[in-house]
Amino acid sequence: MRTGITSLADALVSASVVLTTAIICAGAARADPSQEDQFVALLAQDQIPLIDNLPALVARAHQICGELDGGASVKTVVREEMNGIFEENPAYHQVSGRVRRTAVRFVAVSSDVYCPSHLVDPR
Question: Model-level pTM?
Answer without folding.
Answer: 0.71
